[in-house]
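## retry 2 of 3
previous attempt timed out at serialization; input unchanged, resubmitting
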Amino acid sequence: MDEKSNQVPSTIPRDSPRIDEDDDDSSPASPQRRSFHRSFTHASTTASHYLEGSSGKTFSVPQALKVDYIKQIMDHNEQLRNREFSYRPKQIESLCFSCIILPSLDLDPKEMQRFATPADLEGYEERQLYTLLLLQDPNVRLIFLSSLCVDPEVVSYYLSLLKINPRECLPRLFMLSPNESVSKPLSKKILARPQLLHTIRDIACENATYVGLCGYTGSPATIELAETLGIRLLTTRDVKSLHFGTKQGSKEIFSACNVPSAPGTPSKHDDDLLSTGDISKLQTRYWTDHCKYIRTPKDLSMGIARQIKNFSIKPKKWMIKLNQGFSGRGNAVLDLQQVQNHLYDDINDMANDIEKLLPTMKFECSAVTWAGNGFTGFRNQMQRLGCIGEALLEGDSLQSPSVQGVISQDDDGRPVVRILSTHEQVLNGQTYYGCIFPARSGYRKKLIEYGLRVGAELAKNGGEGYFSVDFIARKLHCKAWDLKAVEINLRKGGTTHPYVLLELLCKGKTDEEGVFHSENGEPKYYVATDGCLIPALQKVRKDALLHALLSGKHALAEEIKWNMEKKKGAVFHLFRFVDLKNMVGFTCIGSTREEAEEINRKTIHFLTALGEQCADTP
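## retry succeeded, writing output
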């Protein structure tokens, strides 16, 4: 988080997207979609398979017993990691599915330095602990990989959400870690440990009908890891296909499937402006080095000048984006008002004037400058990653919705695209902060339509696994919503965790109207955040929060905690950040939008009260 984001006072800022009264979803629900074939490839990427036929009694196990037992299991896992011989889990019989969770943030390392420290990355790995809920299916064996060992009390919290006795599922849970805190992705840490690789393979493959590696994103390292293990990777497996998750690749997909997007460069007329990376001048090689991108200030300026002069694209401001930037940290705003006000006879003169203005751009990340060194230098990162320039979309009632889907394969190997969810994204500047599910009814079906088009085009180009598409929605003069696609994330993202959590807890699915219905047909809504930054959290420690949630003795915690029978309440994540960054994430689920927002308010009240209580405790 940058300094600006640390000033956010609560979970949902005052200027967060609101749902108009006329957008209320009171119409009868459309028939639920017919579930896809029960194959592991699909199940591991959508979790929908695990929601069928896995009911059971709710067990109340004393916290001390649960944590003690979990510690025993995790100590045993640690012994497995250190053994020099093959481990064969003979005590587990006739399992069908082995799922390896790899929460490795395999993104550009220099961009990652802007976003987070090694400790931050380890905290974000734990965002995928919601996958522990897959253990409610007795046919699932789960191997969760992390850079550092996960706190047993955090594991206890997630297992407390299950409707089965933790003792029944713990023998099927293996949490393995290289226990290494360095600034490199988890996938590379594991690849450097042959002994750990051997253990992972043996545990995953013993008696398993299907085995899959579920990564955060496709990358050369995750592809190599899957090949080394001899296990199918359930994300994009072709390095060349990763291009379509970049800013330029997104534009190419939008053009190919007729999804409207903001005008910009490179366009189909700009091939002469594209170049591969100069390997001889780069300190380290990266997979984008061989891609043809706009990489120089001169080429970027000419591309923008062509849009202005040849196609009459004349916004006052332009957005410049690094191809592998994420969470908005690779973006900058370029003010071209003085160029737009000037009449140019020669396009080269216009391009030269634009190039002179590039150092004056307003960078989203406060640590970035135009000519800085290393990860702080925007110009250097342009050379490494390439960039695009596009018209900055402005207008009335500006919103930032998104659609999320998953690409899997049927039994014949043909791609299947499923839309999971639509959201209103809550942004702090251009940085993702949280989301509201579902998106407004005024454009929800159009989001789903565009999402299906993008998913089909991604599948044609080798895309697989989770993807999402960000949009800008504007009200036009006729009061209709205008949607423009912004970018594709060919990976899991901030909206993945809350939606899959909803599926696992409520055992339902999203209908054709984009509304989620639980197994009993009741609609469900949620408000989620990755970064509650209220001042009171500065006084709260992780152990105190977990004790309040698990002990059953804190009245406000009991009021908001997840209710298995009513299928509503708050579910927390990012516990490691309570101590590291004085923040925490949570998802508030209710049967109406208003109920979800009320649970969100009560959750903030609980955290505020807990902070005051901790401040008064010596």
